[in-house]
Amino acid sequence: MLILECPYCGVKAEETELAPGYEAHLKRYGPGSTDEEFEAYMFARKNPKGVHFERWRHAYGCGKWFLAARCTATLEVFGTYPAQLSAPPAEIIAKIKAKRPDWKGLK
Amino acid sequence: MKRYSVFAIAREALNYHMGWEKAWKSPEPKAEYDAIIVGAGGHGLATAYYLGKNHGLRNVAIVEKGWLGGGNTGRNTTIIRSNYLQDPSAAIYDKALQLYENLSQDLNYNVMFSPRGLLMLAQTHHEVRGYMRTVHANLLQGVQTEYIGPQRVKELVPILNIDGPRYPVLGALYQPRGGTGRHDAVAWGYARACSAMGMDIIQQCEVKGIRSEGGKVVGIETTKGYIGTKKLGMVVAGHSGQLAEMAGFRLPIEAVALQALVSEPIKPCMDVVVMANTVHGYMSQSDKGEMVIGGGTDGFNNYTQRGSFQHIEETLRALIETFPMISRLKMLRQWGGIVDMTGDRSPLISKTPLGNCFINCGWGTGGFKAIPGSGWAMAELMAKGEPGPLAEAFNMWRFKEGQFIDESVAAGVAH
Ligand SMILES: Cc1cc2nc3c(=O)[nH]c(=O)nc-3n(C[C@H](O)[C@H](O)[C@H](O)COP(=O)(O)OP(=O)(O)OC[C@H]3O[C@@H](n4cnc5c(N)ncnc54)[C@H](O)[C@@H]3O)c2cc1C
Ligand SMILES: [Zn+2]
């Protein structure tokens, strides 16, 4: 069972209290973008086996969106951070690099 | 390859059953093949089989990182039906069902296809309307299916509680031709036939990289070394994102866990397959007597082949309300598989941005039933380099065009 700490209320919530929102840090494209950019934003996914950054919502708690760094191959959680950040915080990156030396970084 | 038959059993019995030959060979890889299929699940093996049978391409290898049939093909609840809503889906699933009907004879291998009939319960008025629409669409597509009322449902499934307090059964979409098959046997039967055609099934060989020259694939890097190929088919279900990354593109796919469980064996009590999508549970009885139960999918990316615990409770809660008599059954085993979910919940059988490299994936929670049709269509695509009528609509560019094959029945619901 997946347990993530909500960065707003500090609650350690298990997954039935949370709503998943899939890949985080997508660059949004709207009117004026090319078809390829829009398609990639809407549909193409990294879906990595390993380190992944995701959106989650504390649905049965404060109701806010937050972001999580997680390993999809082991279900290990590296940390969570507020959805306002446009990139993962340095301490989470450092933690991931320490635990996953071959990780190539967020692409 | 010696044929299996009643005479073969008699002959081998005289030899104390010491004369049976191995069902398939376990060769070392050659330096190069005309075509390589990555993934020895049902779809990969069926692709190889129809490449040989329909298109005469036999210098083919099927490369598998684990053991053949050990992915989702060996982990599913084996429901087979073809009453899908959209035309491209109905066409390929019905092709698959037709091939299933003769598959044991065709492969000379008993795949235990059991057309025992399949019910999808309507438990809300929306579902009633949705299934009526499917029946009408199926009539136009020439796919036999019918809508039946609650009394007929009760006749077919006496153990079903049709007037539950919350979700009474209002009717059902019924496909008498639907049913189940033996999942392992489908993989084994195709594997044996491929091996007999001279194809190489290379197990315990993981693909680690894809080599290309001038925008075209030339070979694969594996744990057993480099293998050259003129054409490559990637048929790896949950691991499609990884293979696509090796080939240098991204897919509209997320890999999530779907789970299933089986009960202790009991006497025969239900001779049709029942799916209850509103309460979310589906059940059939295996030949051994176990109740085979399909659970829910997780909503997050996962490669661990085990699902979240709460789905077990959710599924059993729903099924106990629907089938009160199972409330005292003990569950024997529970497991998960990594399913490949596309944006529109329909599969991809497609060319890719890399030349001579083709992909077949995105079958998600419902691809066992499609195995023969999918292999048929994928083989045609790989042999000719262009999709035939069955595969055409399932190209990966439909997302850019907005031409989704929107199977709402598949939206989050295992099928
Ligand atoms: C619990 C569960 C219940 C289901 N119930 C049903 C059902 O009732 N009816 C239905 O129609 N469908 C059902 N499905 C879906 C169905 O199982 C799948 O759609 C289908 O089996 C997919 O077959 P496949 O051949 O594409 O994939 P798989 O059988 O998963 O085969 C892919 C193979 O690729 C191999 N592979 C992966 N990466 C590599 C690599 N790098 N190198 C070499 N090999 C690699 C894997 O080891 C695997 O053997 C269910 C699935 C699950 C998990
Ligand atoms: Zn919170």
Strand composition percent of chain A = 25-35%
Number of strands of chain A: 6
Radius of gyration of chain A: 15 Å
Return residue spans of chain B where pLDDT drops below 50 for at least 5 consecutive residues: none
- Outline the biggest β-sheet of chain A: 4 strands, antiparallel
Helix content of chain B: 25-40%
Q: Given the structure, what is the number of helices of chain A?
A: 2
In words, what does this structure look like?
The complex is a heterodimer of chains A (107) and B (415). Chain A is α+β, with helices and mostly antiparallel strands and 107 residues long. Chain A has a single domain (3-99), classed as 2-Layer Sandwich (Folate-binding fold), CATH 3.30.2270. Chain A has two helices and six strands, in the order βββαβββα. Chain A has helices at residues 35-42, 90-99, and strands spanning 3-5, 12-14, 19-23, 51-57, 65-71, 77-82. By secondary structure, chain B is of the alpha/beta class. Chain B has two domains: 29-82 and 85-108 and 183-252 and 344-411, FAD/NAD(P)-binding domain (3-Layer(bba) Sandwich); 118-178 and 255-342, 2-Layer Sandwich (D-Amino Acid Oxidase, Chain A, domain 2). In chain B, the strands form three sheets. In chain B, strands 1, 2, 8, 9, 10, 11, 17 and 18 form an eight-stranded mixed beta sheet that branches. In chain B, strands 5-6-4-13-14-15-12-16 form an eight-stranded mixed beta sheet. In chain B, strands 3-7 form a two-stranded antiparallel ribbon. In chain B, a hairpin with a 4-residue loop joins β14 (281-285) and β15 (290-301). In chain B, α2 (42-55) runs parallel beside α7 and α3 packs across α10 (371-384). The longest helix of chain B is centred in the N-terminal third of the chain and has 17 residues, at 125-141. The radius of gyration of chain B is 21 Å and the shape is globular. Chain A binds chain B through residues 1-2, 15-16, 19-20, 22, 35-36, 39-40, 42-49, 52, 54, 72-75, and chain B through 239, 241-242, 245, 250-255, 298-304, 308-310, 343, 399-400. The complex binds flavin-adenine dinucleotide and zinc ion. Zinc ion is lined by residues 6, 8-9, 11, 58, 61-62, 64 of chain A.
